[in-house]
Write a structure and sequence with these properties.
Order of helices and strands: HHHHHHHHHH
Number of helices: 10
CATH class of the domain at 48-167 and 179-197: Mainly Alpha
Shape: globular
Distance between the termini: 58 Å
Oligomer: single chain
Length: 211
Amino acid sequence: MPETKDKILDTAERLFGEQGFGATSLRHIIAEAGVNLAAVHYHFGSKEELLDAVVVRKLAPINAERLALLDKAAARNSGAPVGVEQFLEAFLWPALRRAAQDAAFTKLLGRLHAEGLMPRVVVNNFREVAARFLGGIRQALPSLPDDEVVWRIHFMIGAMAHTLKGPPDFPGVMVGPAIDPKTQLRWMIAFLSAGFHAPATQPAVYGEVKG
């Protein structure tokens, strides 16, 4: 039984990543995996539940590592608030490291973003991490309004997702060879921490924007 379940998960992950969730049918998955439809329904129920299982299998260890890194940072700080840079390292590093080791899952995440399925993934897999991160950033940056904290975290997640999809691809611009995950982490923390530490913004201060 476990072998059949893993075979379905492996095949679904590959096909969802190559073709997209919408374009991949359960019949295609069972044909590639060499199992019958009853096995999919027995283990997962539906295509949507199969997608959740594919994502959870990879994201659960990443999120567990994130929480463990936050726990270590809190212990090192001896009761003082965890800093923004520590939060960024704890959130980004497990994902960047996994992306470097697992091209198939990185491709799948790119497909989910393109198909607009990431909100579903976030709701189903990030509740504990999101609550911990949001609460910690609020504590680290008490002068920022809550809605601006939430938007800055939203911008951070977008930057991470874009980075996980691959290196920069600007027409006519050479960016050199791919960089290793530790360099990605260092550059992202420098960029994102500057954004988080920026003072709260005021309306209608940029050019002709009159919000």
